[in-house]
Specification:
By secondary structure, this protein is an alpha+beta fold. Helices cover 42% and strands 24% of the residues. The strands form seven sheets. Strands 10-14-15-13-12-11 form a six-stranded mixed sheet. Strand 33, helix 31 and strand 34 form a beta-alpha-beta unit. Helix 1 packs antiparallel against helix 2 and helix 2 runs antiparallel to helix 3.
Length: 921
């Protein structure tokens, strides 16, 4: 059954039960205006709800009853037993109709004209006058009399009638037209009238006749026997009861206390290895969990309740703004805590208004942009990992980055220089600032600068986050992540400087251990601690420094081992440095004491299983306290720390020492891992030291040819890997990781070195990783040496297209040292996007075997598509260099074809290709 219909049946049956009692009281005390007003209000509610749901038969009966009650209330009619009986009869008819509606989910056919006529006559004060002339009507037509008698028999024996008896009564009962005058009989005979219409949905089928007399009996007996129908309650209504919200809140509080007590008992149990209380406490744990889940369900409501007003809102906005808007609501049955539901109603309403006003274009603009006239706003809600995700998406014009920049400068929020250093994602965050609006004028819809900052604040108050995604011309998406409930949450317990804290798991992404003997170490960039996590620089926050905690155990432990809680707030990801991590625990959230409410890093406090009180950290407050917008510098570094796509960009370099002379550097992105190899495990194979590494033999190659490997101790090794091959480069000491512009100022004649550059303020040798890879595997690249091309070249731009990060990172510094300005992309689609953006290159170097668009397809698209690159030389790179491959490459449009492992040939091909192009020009 539809939820709306179920709620209607429940509420209407409750109202009818109240009306039965109230009407009897009214008859006994007709001069009570308060009682009369309450009766009128209940009937009015029933009528209005029937009209809303499209139930015309019920609405007409309720409306006629309301008219009579209205006359009573206004003093135009005097309340008398006959009128009260008529109203009760109308209520019994409504009950009968509701019974059929509950069984079939549809109103029965027919009407109740005789009853409605009598109610209208009563409202006009003509009930007595109308009844007098109608009394002789049965005399000229004797047949109706047995019908009435038959109808009177029904309630008396309705519980014992057989099917044959029912059929006989059916056949003896006249139709609606022949009984039009029957209701004017004395009061007991009036009762069956509405039942005739009710039990004639279809005169032909016998099952219908067997099925329908029950409501008829209820109706007849309801008026004649003092409401017998009321004794049979609605099955739907009996399934639900109304409970005061305060009672539920109190129940939830008691369950929360029970959860705390359960946690304390389990804590005691863990401290004892064997206890006779283990089994009962485990049972108590299960029962408490089930009770907690059951009580939580009583507070759950579908999110569709918060969306109920949005269709009307969007409809009004579409007329007001002159736009065509289609609102789609998905996941309306997703349930969450009623307290959370109430708190997100206003933010959701505002964001839908924003999408309609700011996001969607007028029909004419949409048609010019190649879109349909009707804009679409989509609301989607779903569960994910114990949280609720709500997406508000539109297919409009997206956020105007330029207008946001102008407004930010106009409001003094940032300078042009600061904006230039920010990514689009960071600039978008300005719309969350107080007083920020890009509306051209103030209207009753928008432009006041009050809105998104309030939305963000309200969502963060309940421990949620909001994320914005926007694409110019395509639309915007707002993603809200909120907890299912605010009363009991899952949290991670951590320790810092001897103090324990709870961090809500909704914001925790992962845990990382950073120590000298682990693969993760904390680095510092311009004095700021960062962690290199999967080739990304993660900004770190020291909880001890942020909260100004005194380390009771001394400062040495912090340098030995640190745990980092990787936390995400919207699009901002950062790490919180703590000393220890304990476990996750379900905690009961208690409000922050007034004396601490000004500290935005705390969202509440809780009591742990051992009875200690700890603070709950608010990741939103921590992000705000550390300067969320200041993440711009780190975020921009993340994009360039792994690979240098342009010579002017910074490159992450690993500094180390190996042999005598200057320190050495290698691009960090080429290094797969840093290992400490136990020299006792080093073996010899084919005259070369090797070590068993991840199930395979890994050759160890020293940078200094005269290096003699020891027999014991540990040796630092840089591991280079590509596919299933790996090589260990033996070094003496790992020095640091820095980000510098790689500008080789002196070329080197010594094999294995590209040249020298100033890195970290010192002259440093930049090694050629490719040379050492060929020492481990002769066929890795083919050539074991590189020649120095000393000819001075103008800075010529090279576009490198290769799906392998390893080869991009290997060839980029090689070509940069050779004097080329290199831009590297990972697929053909990105390359064509640069073409559309107006970028020009002197030569294009492309891999052949790439997912999606292959190198051959890419060359044909460049040559035959009439692009600005149609005359640009193209050099193919491939591990297959057969004559047939060469022919196919030239047919596709490549100027030259070079084997991927032949780096010398690539440099030569570039030199020759550019020379020929220069000569032809």
């Amino acid at each position: 059954m539809d939820d709306l219909l179920s709620e209607f049946l429940t509420e209407t049956n409750e109202n009818l039960s109240v009306l039965d009692v109230e009407l009897v009281r009214l008859e006994q005390n007709p001069n009570n205006p308060e009682l009369l007003s309450n009766i009128f209000r209940l009937v009015h509610t029933i009528k209005g709800t029937c009209g809303f749901l499209g139930l015309p038969r019920l609405e007409k009966v309720a409306h006629a009853s309301e008219n009579v009650l209205g006359k009573f209330r206004d003093g135009e009619l005097t309340i008398n037993p006959e009128a009260v009986s008529l109203i009760l009869q109308a209520l019994d008819t409504i009950k009968s109709l509701l019974a059929v509606l509950e069984a079939t989910e549809a109103e029965p056919p027919g009407d109740d004209l005789p009853l409605i006529e009598r109610l209208n006559l009563c409202a006009e004060g003509k009930l007595g006058a109308a009844a007098a002339p109608a009394k002789p009507a049965p005399a000229p037509e004797p047949p109706p009399a047995p019908a009435v008698a038959a109808a009177e028999v029904v309630p008396a024996s309705s519980g014992n009638l057989t099917l044959d008896e029912l059929e006989a009564i059916w056949n003896a009962t006249p139709g609606p037209t022949s009984t039009a005058l029957a209701p004017v009989a004395p009061e007991p005979a009036e009762d069956p009238v509405p039942s005739h219409d009710l039990v004639v949905p279809d005169p032909d089928p016998v099952p219908a006749a067997a099925k329908m007399p029950a409501p008829a009996a209820d109706t007849a007996s309801g008026a004649g026997a003092g409401g017998e129908a009321a004794t049979k309650e609605s099955a739907v209504a009996a399934q639900t009861i109304r409970v005061n919200v305060d009672l539920l809140e109190n129940l939830m509080t008691m369950v929360s206390e029970l959860v705390l007590t359960r946690n304390q008992l389990l804590q005691i149990l863990r401290s004892q290895k064997e206890s006779e209380f283990a089994a009962p406490l485990q049972r108590l744990n299960h029962v408490t969990s089930e009770l907690q889940e059951g009580v939580m369900k009583t507070r759950m409501q579908p999110i569709g309740n918060a969306w109920a007003k949005l269709p009307r809102l969007v409809r009004d906005l579409s007329h007001e703004l002159g736009k065509k808007i289609d609102l789609q609501m998905l996941g309306a049955d997703t349930e969450l805590d009623r307290q959370v539901l109430e708190l997100i109603k206003d933010p959701l309403t505002h964001m839908v208004r924003n999408s309609a006003d700011h996001g969607l274009e007028v029909p004419a603009d949409r048609l010019r942009a190649g879109k349909s006239e009707t804009g679409r706003i989509t609301l989607n809600a779903y569960h994910e990992g114990g949280h609720i995700i709500i997406e508000i998406q539109d297919d409009g014009k997206g956020l105007a980055i330029d207008r946001i920049k102008q407004k930010a400068i106009q409001n003094g929020m940032a300078s042009e220089g600061e904006l230039a250093a920010m990514s689009d994602q960071q600039i978008i965050q300005f719309i969350m600032k107080p007083g920020f609006s890009t509306a051209a004028k103030v209207t009753n819809v928008s432009g006041r600068g009050v809105g998104m900052d309030v939305v963000k604040t309200n969502i963060e108050k309940i421990g949620g986050t909001i994320e914005i995604k926007s694409q110019q011309g395509k639309g915007s998406t707002f993603v809200i992540k909120i907890p299912l409930t605010l009363a009991i949450v899952s949290a991670l317990i951590v320790e810092c400087a001897g103090e324990r804290f709870a961090i809500p798991q909704i914001s925790v992404v992962e845990l990382v251990r950073a120590a000298a003997d682990s693969e993760h170490t904390i680095e510092r960039l311009k004095g700021t601690p960062v962690l290199r996590l999967r080739n990304r620089l993660l900004p770190l926050v020291s909880l001890q420094e942020l909260l100004r905690l005194d380390d009771q155990e001394g400062g040495e432990k912090k340098t030995d081992e640190t745990f980092i809680v990787v936390t995400q707030v919207g699009t901002y990801t950062f790490g919180i440095m703590v000393d220890r991590v304990f476990d996750t625990e379900e905690i009961v959230v208690k409000p922050v004491a007034p004396i601490l409410r000004h500290i935005e890093m705390f969202s509440g406090n809780t009591i742990l299983g051992d009875g200690s009180v700890i603070m709950i950290l608010d990741p939103n407050g921590i992000a705000s306290a550390t300067g969320e917008m200041a993440m711009g510098e780190t975020a921009s570094k993340e994009a360039t720390s792994v690979q240098a796509t342009r010579q002017e960009d910074k490159m992450a370099l690993l500094l180390f020492r190996a042999g005598a002379g200057a320190p050495k550097a290698v691009p960090l992105s080429l290094v797969a891992r840093l290992e400490d190899v136990d020299l006792a495990s080093v073996e010899s194979s084919n005259g070369m030291p090797v070590v068993q590494y991840r199930g395979k033999l890994m050759p160890l190659v020293p940078i200094d040819p005269g290096f003699m490997i020891g027999q014991e101790g540990r040796q630092p090794v840089l591991v280079f890997a590509d596919g299933d091959r790996s090589m260990g480069l033996i070094v003496d000491e790992i020095v640091d990781i820095v980000e510098e512009r790689l500008v080789v100022q002196l070329t080197a004649d010594r094999p294995g070195l590209m040249g020298s550059a100033i890195i970290a303020g010192k002259a440093t040798d930049v090694i050629d990783a490719g040379f050492f890879l060929t020492q481990a595997y002769k066929d890795w690249f083919g050539s074991s040496s590189t020649d120095a091309y000393e000819e001075e070249k103008a800075l010529q731009r090279v576009l490198l297209v290769d799906d392998s990060p390893f080869f991009r990172n290997l060839l980029t510094p090689l070509l940069s040292v050779a004097g080329y300005d290199v831009t590297a992309v990972e697929n053909a689609n990105e390359a064509l996007a640069l073409c559309e953006a107006g970028e020009d290159f002197d030569v294009i170097v492309s891999d052949i075997e790439m997912p999606g668009m292959s190198g051959f397809d890419f060359a044909e698209a460049v040559r035959q598509g009439g692009t600005r690159w149609s005359g640009t030389p193209m050099v193919a790179l491939s591990s297959h260099a057969s004559p047939r491959d060469l022919d196919r490459g030239r047919q596709a449009g490549f100027t030259d074809y070079v084997a991927k492992f032949d780096r010398d040939a690539l440099l030569y091909a570039l030199q020759q290709t550019l020379s020929e192009q220069k000569g032809a020009a």
